[in-house]
Amino acid sequence: ASSFPGTKILNFNVGVLGHVDSGKTSLARNPQSRERGITLDLGFSSFTVELPAHLREAGGHRYHSLQFTLVDCPGHASLIRTIIGGAQIIDLMMLVVDVVKGVQTQTAECLLIGELTCPRMVVVLNKIDLLPPNKRQSSIEKMTKRLHKTLENTRFKDCPVIAVAAKPGGPEAPDTEEPQGVPELIELLKKQTYLPHRDPEGDLLMAVDHCFSIRGQGTVMTGTILQGSLAINDTVEIPALKVTKKVKSVQMFRKPVSGAMQGDRVGVCVTQFDPKLLERGVVCAPGSLRTLYAALISVRKIGYFKGSLSTRAKFHITVGHETVMARVTFFGLPPTDARQPPSDATPLPPEPQLCPLDTPFSFDREYLYQEEYMTGQGEASSGPDPEQWALLEFERPVTCPSLSLVIGSKLDTDIHANACRLAFHGRLLKGFEDKGYAETALPQLHIYKTKHKEGQVERVTDDYTVIGRNLFKKETNLQLFVGLKVTLSTGETGSIDGGFGQSGKFKIRVSEGLHPETKRLLSSTSKKKGKGGGKGEPASEDEPKADSQPISIHLHFKRYVFDPHKKMVQS
């Protein structure tokens, strides 16, 4: 949709997704193109129809026709990224399913990407010409039922399913075979259209899928505007080449226009450069993309992913138009922060679970380090997953817009193994552009681990001092621990006063003084064994035998994962 003069055609982008060989290319390619290989690129092709009445009534009266741009999304693993790259501008998903094989792994992955990126979908059952005519109808009905079952827990519940044969007889058949069901499919697509929300604001970002030069004019880049807008005489940046270029002319639907905006499919002619340098990639407003060495994201696990998500593991991260390996560190809210009512107020009613991002990330907060992503499916509970974030440390720098969608996957899993490779998704919240981010930025990230050490009281020296053991190794530098609070299993609080002797023992100062009961326990424990009660009295029942129950010492502290000084902190 465009507010620029000269465009009376509404462009509607349909993402064609499906399993590698489900035949989606036959649907997306123009009939004259014969190659039926597995497509690897977001191949575009389009057709134009009269503007449907419901769009005219919805306020689309400034358009006279509707162009469907079919974006053929690749099925290959390494190219999940292309799908995600074009996802912001896909208005409708068309999921192509082989009617004989049904939903395969890749189909399930497509569904997930669809759910993350697109509000509507139609399912196309392809290759119905392969079904024996007498069983055709019942097979189609069976498969339609199965698909509705698969989709019932997704946002595409009850989406329309239609059966076609896009290329009867398969790739080798002569072109005289008429496709079946294609006019009905076009009618269905028309019914599913709506006026997409298009926003000319924000920095320009355009996905380029083709580049060629015209002698004496300049270099033309064709592609789709993902965000913002552009006009003649604008300066645009090609980040991959680190150059800026001036826009000389813009075309839409092969007609010159003065400019274009989000969702539009355009050809943009700029001052000459070698088109071979930019087969595909992005063009943006100068300076609007950032190159990141690491990033903080909000994170949600994808339910179908079978593995666990562990801190320090490496995942393929797709962000913007790039996919790169990154090491992941998961962290969450400290136990007390997970919704506590203010102390002086009446307790809050239980809150309905909000979507991700109900607690904005902030460097002023403290977060708890996690060994892995926590799901809400514990032994006791089966709620939604608690809110979590992750630090991504990229193996090589990544160029992307801020607030990009981020998808983490395990693409090295075998594509034919029946397992979902998409592991988590989230939004980019904060990027680190400094190569030395580990020294300059991470120390401001307050992610802590809680530590607990336990030792025993060896003996009491006076009413205010005990000697402890087994809390530290011999070689530990006790100076680091001086002043830290400890608690005794009998209830007193004390602080570590310093070392005692050479073997890792230490003094604890109990400023409130030891309880009489504690002193009695300690004196009885240190008496020689087997003496019983002194002075002929029977040993009292509750007096422990020597060393049977030493008094334990507990030291709790926090250590911040990115603190260069490894300080120990107690709240």
UniProtKB/TrEMBL annotation:
It catalyses: GTP + H2O = GDP + phosphate + H(+). GO terms for biological process: selenocysteine incorporation. Pfam families: eEFSec_4th, euk_SelB_III, GTP_EFTU, GTP_EFTU_D2. One of its GO terms (molecular function) is translation elongation factor activity. Its main location: cytoplasm. It is found in: Cytoplasm; Nucleus. This is Selenocysteine-specific elongation factor. InterPro entries: eEFSec_C, eEFSec_III, EF-Tu_GTPase, EFTu-like_2, P-loop_NTPase, T_Tr_GTP-bd_dom, Transl_B-barrel_sf. Its cofactor is Mg(2+); Mn(2+). Residues 1-201 form the Tr-type G domain. It comes from the Eukaryota. GO terms for cellular component: cytoplasm; nucleus. PANTHER family: ELONGATION FACTOR TU-RELATED, SELENOCYSTEINE-SPECIFIC ELONGATION FACTOR. Translation factor required for the incorporation of the rare amino acid selenocysteine encoded by UGA codons. Replaces the eRF1-eRF3-GTP ternary complex for the insertion of selenocysteine directed by the UGA codon. Insertion of selenocysteine at UGA codons is mediated by SECISBP2 and EEFSEC: SECISBP2 (1) specifically binds the SECIS sequence once the 80S ribosome encounters an in-frame UGA codon and (2) contacts the RPS27A/eS31 of the 40S ribosome before ribosome stalling. Keywords: Cytoplasm, GTP-binding, Hydrolase, Methylation, Nucleotide-binding, Nucleus, Phosphoprotein, Protein biosynthesis. Residues 518-551 are annotated as: Disordered.
